[in-house]
Specification:
Largest sheet: 5 strands, mixed
Radius of gyration: 31 Å
Number of helices: 12
Number of strands: 5
Distance between the termini: 62 Å
Strand content: 5-15%
């Protein structure tokens, strides 16, 4: 009912605008010899605003009103065209992995025992034909993720140039342009230095060098200070994992207790705030992939059932921790298995190209 009244008002406004403009033209033609110029008249001044103010306010403030085709047309005139974004495809959430494998190892305990090493494990990553977690995720990105990655790539090329971007994505190779070289090097080394500083802090055997002391003063380290207060009992740092059954490898950042719970911790840096775990894109899949591999890797005697993604900021703003309990990890593990199956299928069809980035 209110919407019909509102439509009537709009029609009255249009008709009143016509009548007022006509009257203004007549007045101008009869008095042009004395006035010399037309006086601009606001057609909406002729509307009884007091009479319709309550109705207009009621219609505009109402929510959840059913829209008729006429009301949609009026809304388009008042507020612009309707945004017709499609809802995201939920089909993937309903799919079940064909070859299910558990993320947790029933033969292991998540509680520490006397045989656990006192020094954090640091197993080197062996480069071989086995695909890495990063490669699998990159080769099975959704169309939206590919679009976002391509947009990021173009933005980086504009900032660094073609040579600088190649340097950034190939672990800093030789570049002829000094300015581009330094800029690309600084961007590439930000994450690496951040991880080195964290390793110096978390490893009991690491001794701080002068360079490390300067790293500890960085904004990223300042950003994670409140997180580090809750981290203890470090079990592994920059250590490789391999899932022999599912056939993939990875290099995890850290395994330690966070607020008393053993977690696979992934340290991330970001220029933009990421207060929600959805903002971290495929990072949860990366964490559970490492977790599942480690829980079945013979190089490790313990088991992890939780994950933690920490997003640090360059300006020193408090980092956002995204904790993943066992239930949430299991949900992401199912999604990881789907991505792994998709990668395997693509490999069989020989559609996989050489990866642009490495683990």
């Amino acid at each position: 009912m209110k919407m019909k009244l509102f439509q009537t008002i709009c029609r009255q406004l249009r008709s009143s605008k016509f009548s007022v403009e006509s009257a203004a033209l007549v007045a101008f033609s009869t008095s042009s010899y004395s006035c010399g110029r037309k006086k601009k008249v606001n057609p909406y001044e002729e509307v009884d605003q007091e009479k319709y103010s309550n109705l207009v306010q009621s219609v505009l403030s109402s929510r959840g009103v059913a829209q008729t085709p006429g009301s949609v047309e009026e809304d388009a005139l008042l507020c612009g065209p309707v945004s017709k974004h499609k809802l995201p495809n939920q089909g993937e959430d309903r799919r079940v992995p064909q070859n299910w494998f558990p993320i947790f190892n029933p033969e292991r305990s998540d509680k520490p025992n006397a045989s656990d090493p006192s020094v954090p494990l640091k197993i080197p990553l062996q480069r071989n034909v086995i695909p890495s977690v990063t490669r699998v995720l990159q080769q099975t990105m959704t169309k939206q993720q590919v679009f976002l990655l391509e947009r990021w790539k173009q933005r980086m090329i504009l900032e660094l140039g073609e040579d600088g971007f190649k340097e950034y994505t190939s672990s800093f190779h030789v570049c002829d342009h000094v300015y581009v070289k330094n800029l690309a090097r600084d961007i590439f080394l930000q994450g690496k230095r951040f991880h080195e500083a964290l390793e110096s802090i978390l490893s009991p055997q690491e001794t701080l060098k002068e360079r490390d002391e300067n790293l500890l003063k960085s904004g990223y380290i300042e950003s994670v200070q409140h997180i580090l207060k809750d981290v203890s009992g470090v079990r592994a740092l920059e250590s490789a994992v391999q899932h022999e059954t599912l056939n993939y490898i990875g290099l995890l950042d850290c395994v330690a207790e966070y607020q008393g719970k053993l977690c696979v911790i992934d340290w991330k840096t970001s220029e933009k705030p990421k207060p929600f775990i959805q903002s971290t894109f495929d990072n949860p899949l990366q964490v559970v992939a490492y977790m599942g591999a480690m829980n079945h890797d013979t190089n490790y005697s313990f088991q992890v059932q939780c994950g933690l993604i920490v997003v640090a900021y360059k300006d020193g703003s408090p980092a956002h921790p995204h904790f993943m309990d066992a239930e949430l990890c299991s949900q992401y593990w199912a999604k990881w298995l789907l991505r792994l199956e998709e990668y395997t299928e693509k490999k069989k069809n020989q559609n996989i190209q050489k990866p642009e980035y490495s683990e």
